[in-house]
Amino acid sequence: MHERVAGCVLVILLLLPTPAPAEVLITTDCWARASVPGARSTVIYGSFRNDGKRSLTIEEVTSEIAGMIMVHETVLENNMVMMSPVDELRIAPGEEIELKPGGLHIMLTGLTRALNEKDVFKIRLVFSDGRTATADVIVGSISQLTAP
Ligand SMILES: [Cu+2]
Question: Which end of the chain is least crowded, N or C, by CB within 10 Å?
Answer without folding.
Answer: N
